[in-house]
Inverse folding.
C-alpha cells in the first residue's frame, strides 16, 4: 500500500477521496442518513434546503412526497455503486476471457469473437438497453445484465491486442518450452501482464456505468421507484424543475462528482502504468548506446 | 596532432541527466579531436556515453533530462575562428546539421520517412540547404543514389522506403547524409542492424566515399573488428570518460588501459587458437553516477590499487596511445 | 563429420521443412507459401555443440524452434533419445514431430531454449525466483523444494540467490540472460537450443555468458544447438557448424575444417565479410534474397562469383566432400576457397 501513497498526485488524492466518501455513504447509509429515505411527510413536501429558506430538519430539502433529499442521495449511492461494481466486474470477466482466448488461439476463435465485438459496438448502447428493459422489465439485475451484454467489448478489444503482442514475447515461448499447460500460461503469465491496462479501463468504466445507470433510471428504465437512486430522483424532480431546483441539482451533483472521482482515479492509474510517465527506472536513462 | 588544425575538437565535454543534487554525470570530461579526412572511432559498451557524445555534437540530446553542463565542442568551418557547438544557438545548429555535419543512424528504417519517395527525401536536404529547385534536387538525388551503389537509381528514386531492402535503405540514408558534402559525417552504429555480408558492403562504401570526398568520419561502434577496418584513430570510452585513445594499430595491438585490454581479450576472433579461453572483464558496468571520482574502472579492474581512488594521469606510451591509468605511468 | 554409427546420437533430424502461408490483397487470400526451411538434415551427439549460422531469412531460428515444436514443422522426422521418456517406460528414441501432447510434456524436460532478448524472455511481472521456478512447478515440484532448487540454479549460473526476490527490470541484461539460462537448466535437460543467446549482450558480458555455456556443457554433458549470426562466436563454442542459406544447409563441417578450407562459396563470403583490420578481402555482391521468391537452381548462384550456367538450373544437394565437410555446391571439390 505504501507505494500507492508515495505516488499519489493531486488528481489521485482527489479521486480516492471522492471514492471514499461515496463508499462510506453506501456502507453506512442507515447511520449517516438523518431520516428514513422512504418516510413520507406530505405536510412538509417540497421544502427548500436549509440554506435556501428551509428548516434544519431537511438540509437539502424534500421532494413532492416530503421525503428527505439528503437521505435519498445517501441511500442512492448504494444503487449506483452496486450497479457499477457488478456491471464492471461482470463485463471485465467476460470481456477479458474472450479477449484472451481470441488473442492467444487466433484463427477461428479470433474471427468469431472479434466479429461479435464489431456487431455489439455497432448497436447504440441506449437502444440496446431500451429494448432489453422493455422485454425483460426494469430491475436492477436487468440493468446489470444489459451493461455486461454491451460493455464486455471494451475489455475484449484491449485484451486481444495486448495478448497478440504478448504471445510473441519470448517468455511465453519459454513457458511453452517448459511444458506449462495453456491454462497455466494464460492465467499465470498472460493475465498478470493484462491486469494493469484492464484495471485502468475498468475504473473509467465505473464512472461511465454510473452515468448511464442514472440515465436509464431517468428514463424510467432503471430501478423501481421505491428504491432511491440518483437517476430516479432526477426523473422525479424533472417535472418540478421550475419550482424546486434542489430536486434535480443535488442528485445531479452527486452523479457528477462520483463520475469525476472515478475518472481521476482512472487517469492516475493510467499514468502509473504508462512507462513514459510512470515510475522511471534510473538504469534506463543513458542506456541508449 | 598539434600541428594540424582539428576539424572537430571536443574539450572537456560534460553532460548530466537531471537537475540539482540528483543530477548524474553521463559524460564526465570527454576530450578528443577529429582530424580532416580521417576517421575517428569511439568504442565502448552500453552506457559508456558514446552515442551521447554524438548526440551532443549534433545538439540532439533529449533535453530534459540530458543537458550539456560544461566543455566546448569546437568545429572548424574553414572560415575564421572555430565555432563552439556546445553554446551555438538553434538557428546556427539548424543550418549546420545536414550541411556541414551529417549523421547516419543505426536503424535505416526509422531514419527514413515512410510516406515520401526516397528521391524526395534526398532532394529535400538540397532544397533546404543549397537552395536548389525541386527538379534539380531530384536529378542530384539520382546521382547520389548512383554514387552509393543503388542500382537503376532513376527508378529507385521514385520508390518508397518499404520497397528497399535493409542494405539499400542504409545506402539511401548515406546518400542523404552525403547530399551537401558535409565536412564531418557522424555514423552511430551504422551497420549493426545489417546482415554480415551487407555490413561488409556498407563499410566498403563508406571507406570509398571518404576517399572520394576527403570527409572526416566520427564512427561510433561497439565492434572492435569494425574499428580495425574503418578507423585511423580510436577513442575507448568507459562510464562517461575517455580511458584510452590513439592510433588504431597501437590501441588494438598494444592496448595500455586495463579496460581496453579486457575488452579486446573478451572478443572471440576467427584467428584466435581454438583452445584459447576468452578472458572476460569481471562484473558489470556500474550505474551512471555511482562512481564519480578516481578511476571509474577500478571496481572491475584486475590491477586495482589503493591509488586508483585518485584521478589517474593521462600517459602516452611509446606506441603512441595515451591511457588514463596509474599503472601505465609505472611501466614507461 | 563423424561416422554415423560410431556414437549414439542424441538428436537426428531428417528432411525438416517449415512452410508459412503468405496472404495477399484486400481479402487476405492465401497467395502461396514461403519455404522457411527446406529439407534440413542434422545430427547432434550427446555433449556436442552444433553451430547454426546464417543471415536473416536463412531459417536458422525457425530450425531451432521447429525442433523444439515451438513451431509446428510441416514435414520431417526428428529422432530424440529422451532420458525422461525412457524412464517413464517409453521407447528409447522418440520422433519429436509425432509425439502426442502427453509425451511432448515429458520431452520438454529434456530440451530447452535460451532466447536472444533478455528483456522479453522473462515475465516482467513475476519475481526472478518465480520465473526460474515455472518449469519446476509445471513438473509438479513442491514449493519448498522449488525454492531450494532455484537458489542452487542461480548459484550454478553465477548469480546470488538473493536475486530471487527481485523483478526482471532490476537486473542488467547479462544478469537476465543468466536467469534465462538458469530457467532452461531447471529440469536438467540434455539438449538446449541457444537462439542468438549472446548477440544482444555487450562484449565483456558476452564473453562471460559464452564461458558459462562452455562450463555448463562440461559439468552437465549438455548438447547445444547454437544459433547465431556471429561467425567468431559460433567458432568459439561449436564442435561442428552448419551454414544455412535460404532455408537450406549449404555447408556442414567440423569447425576447424570449415574455417581452414570452406567448401561452399557462401561460407567463404561469410568469412570474407567479418570486419577486421585487413578489410581488403572480396566483398560479396547483393543481399540475401526474399524467401518468397527463391532463385532457381542453387539459391546462392545470383551472388556467387564462381557461378556457372549449371548453377542457375540445378540445385546441388548437400554431399560429403571430405570426411570433415559436406557442402551443397556443384564445384565443391574443384574450387579453391579461402579460409581464415
Amino acid at each position: 500500500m505504501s507505494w500507492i501513497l508515495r505516488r499519489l498526485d493531486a488528481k489521485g488524492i482527489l479521486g480516492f477521496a471522492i471514492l471514499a466518501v461515496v463508499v462510506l455513504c453506501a456502507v453506512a447509509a442507515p447511520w449517516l442518513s438523518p431520516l428514513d429515505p422512504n418516510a413520507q411527510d406530505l405536510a412538509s413536501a417540497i421544502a427548500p434546503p436549509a440554506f435556501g429558506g428551509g428548516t434544519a430538519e431537511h438540509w437539502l430539502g424534500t421532494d413532492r412526497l416530503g421525503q428527505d433529499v439528503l437521505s435519498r442521495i445517501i441511500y442512492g449511492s448504494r444503487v449506483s455503486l452496486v450497479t457499477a461494481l457488478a456491471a464492471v466486474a461482470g463485463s471485465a470477466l467476460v470481456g477479458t476471457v474472450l479477449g484472451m482466448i481470441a488473442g492467444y488461439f487466433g484463427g477461428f476463435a479470433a474471427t468469431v469473437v472479434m466479429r461479435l465485438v464489431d456487431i455489439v459496438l455497432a448497436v447504440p448502447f441506449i437502444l440496446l438497453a431500451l429494448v432489453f428493459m422493455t422485454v425483460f422489465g426494469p430491475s436492477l439485475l436487468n440493468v446489470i445484465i444489459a451493461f455486461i451484454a454491451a460493455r464486455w467489448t471494451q475489455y475484449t478489444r484491449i485484451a486481444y491486442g495486448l495478448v497478440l503482442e504478448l504471445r510473441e514475447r519470448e517468455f511465453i515461448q519459454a513457458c511453452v518450452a517448459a511444458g506449462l499447460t495453456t491454462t497455466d500460461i494464460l492465467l499465470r503469465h498472460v493475465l498478470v501482464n493484462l491486469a494493469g491496462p484492464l484495471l485502468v479501463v475498468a475504473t473509467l468504466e465505473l464512472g461511465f456505468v454510473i452515468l448511464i445507470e442514472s440515465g436509464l433510471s431517468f428514463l424510467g428504465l432503471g430501478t423501481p421507484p421505491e428504491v432511491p437512486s440518483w437517476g430516479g430522483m432526477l426523473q422525479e424532480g424533472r417535472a418540478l424543475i421550475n419550482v424546486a431546483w434542489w430536486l434535480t441539482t443535488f442528485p445531479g451533483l452527486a452523479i457528477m462528482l462520483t463520475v469525476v472521482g472515478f475518472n481521476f482515479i482512472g487517469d492516475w492509474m493510467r499514468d502509473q502504468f504508462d512507462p513514459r510517465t510512470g515510475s522511471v527506472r534510473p538504469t534506463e536513462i543513458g542506456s541508449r548506446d | 596532432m598539434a600541428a594540424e588544425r582539428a576539424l572537430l575538437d571536443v574539450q572537456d565535454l560534460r553532460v548530466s541527466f537531471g537537475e540539482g543534487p540528483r543530477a548524474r554525470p553521463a559524460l564526465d570530461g570527454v576530450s578528443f579531436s577529429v582530424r580532416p579526412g580521417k576517421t575517428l572511432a569511439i568504442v565502448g559498451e552500453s552506457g559508456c556515453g558514446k552515442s551521447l557524445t554524438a548526440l551532443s555534437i549534433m545538439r540532439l540530446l533529449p533535453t530534459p533530462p540530458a543537458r550539456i553542463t560544461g566543455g566546448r565542442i569546437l568545429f572548424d568551418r574553414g572560415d575564421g575562428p572555430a565555432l563552439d557547438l556546445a553554446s551555438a544557438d538553434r538557428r546556427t545548429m539548424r543550418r549546420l546539421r545536414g550541411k556541414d555535419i551529417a549523421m547516419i543512424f543505426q536503424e535505416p528504417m526509422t531514419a527514413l520517412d515512410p510516406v515520401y519517395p526516397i528521391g524526395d527525401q534526398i532532394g529535400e536536404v538540397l532544397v533546404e540547404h543549397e537552395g536548389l529547385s525541386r527538379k534539380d534536387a531530384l536529378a542530384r538525388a539520382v546521382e547520389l543514389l548512383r554514387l552509393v551503389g543503388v542500382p537503376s537509381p532513376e527508378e529507385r528514386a521514385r520508390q518508397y522506403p518499404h520497397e528497399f531492402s535493409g542494405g539499400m535503405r542504409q545506402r539511401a540514408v548515406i546518400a542523404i547524409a552525403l547530399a551537401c558534402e558535409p565536412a564531418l559525417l557522424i555514423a552511430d552504429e551504422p551497420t549493426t542492424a545489417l546482415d554480415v555480408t551487407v555490413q561488409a558492403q556498407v563499410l566498403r562504401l563508406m571507406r570509398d566515399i571518404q576517399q572520394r570526398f576527403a570527409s572526416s568520419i566520427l564512427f561510433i561502434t561497439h565492434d572492435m573488428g569494425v574499428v580495425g577496418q574503418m578507423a585511423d584513430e580510436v577513442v575507448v570510452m568507459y562510464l562517461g570518460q575517455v580511458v584510452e585513445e590513439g592510433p588504431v594499430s597501437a590501441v588494438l595491438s598494444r592496448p595500455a588501459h586495463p579496460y581496453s585490454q579486457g575488452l579486446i581479450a573478451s572478443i572471440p576472433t576467427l584467428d584466435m587458437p581454438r583452445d584459447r579461453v576468452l578472458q572476460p572483464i569481471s562484473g558489470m558496468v556500474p550505474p551512471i553516477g555511482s562512481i564519480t571520482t578516481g578511476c571509474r574502472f577500478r571496481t572491475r579492474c584486475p590491477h586495482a590499487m589503493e591509488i586508483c581512488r585518485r584521478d589517474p594521469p593521462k600517459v602516452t606510451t611509446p606506441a603512441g596511445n595515451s591511457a588514463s591509468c596509474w599503472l601505465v605511468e609505472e611501466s614507461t | 563429420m563423424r561416422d554415423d554409427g560410431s556414437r549414439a546420437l542424441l538428436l537426428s533430424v531428417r528432411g525438416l521443412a517449415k512452410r508459412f502461408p503468405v496472404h495477399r490483397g484486400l481479402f487476405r487470400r492465401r497467395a502461396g507459401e514461403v519455404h522457411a526451411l527446406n529439407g534440413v538434415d542434422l545430427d547432434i551427439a550427446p555433449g556436442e555443440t552444433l553451430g547454426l549460422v546464417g543471415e536473416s531469412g536463412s531459417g536458422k531460428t525457425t530450425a531451432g524452434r521447429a525442433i523444439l515444436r515451438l513451431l509446428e514443422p510441416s514435414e520431417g522426422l526428428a529422432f530424440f533419445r529422451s532420458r525422461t521418456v525412457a524412464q517413464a517406460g517409453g521407447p528409447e528414441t522418440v520422433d519429436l514431430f509425432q509425439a502426442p501432447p502427453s509425451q511432448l510434456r515429458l520431452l520438454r524436460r529434456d530440451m530447452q531454449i535460451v532466447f536472444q532478448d533478455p528483456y522479453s524472455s522473462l515475465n516482467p511481472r513475476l519475481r526472478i525466483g518465480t520465473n526460474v521456478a515455472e518449469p519446476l512447478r509445471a513438473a509438479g515440484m513442491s514449493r519448498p523444494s522449488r525454492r531450494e532448487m532455484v537458489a542452487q540454479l542461480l548459484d550454478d549460473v553465477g548469480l546470488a540467490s538473493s536475486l530471487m526476490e527481485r523483478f526482471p527490470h532490476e537486473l542488467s541484461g547479462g544478469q537476465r540472460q543468466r536467469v534465462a539460462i538458469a530457467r532452461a537448466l531447471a529440469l536438467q535437460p540434455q539438449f538446449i537450443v541457444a537462439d542468438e543467446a549472446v548477440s544482444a549482450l555487450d562484449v565483456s558480458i558476452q564473453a562471460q555468458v559464452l564461458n558459462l555455456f562452455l562450463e555448463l556443457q562440461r559439468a552437465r554433458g549438455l548438447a547445444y544447438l547454437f544459433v547465431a549470426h556471429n561467425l567468431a562466436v559460433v567458432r568459439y563454442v561449436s564442435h561442428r557448424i552448419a551454414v544455412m542459406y535460404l532455408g537450406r544447409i549449404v555447408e556442414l563441417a567440423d569447425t576447424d575444417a570449415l574455417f581452414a578450407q570452406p567448401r561452399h562459396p557462401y561460407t567463404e563470403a561469410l568469412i570474407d565479410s567479418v570486419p577486421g583490420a585487413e578489410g581488403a578481402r572480396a566483398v560479396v555482391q547483393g543481399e540475401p534474397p526474399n524467401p518468397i521468391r527463391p532463385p532457381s537452381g542453387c539459391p546462392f548462384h545470383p551472388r556467387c562469383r564462381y557461378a556457372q550456367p549449371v548453377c542457375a538450373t540445378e540445385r546441388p544437394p548437400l554431399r560429403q566432400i571430405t570426411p570433415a565437410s559436406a557442402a551443397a555446391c556443384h564445384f565443391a571439390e574443384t574450387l579453391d576457397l579461402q579460409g581464415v
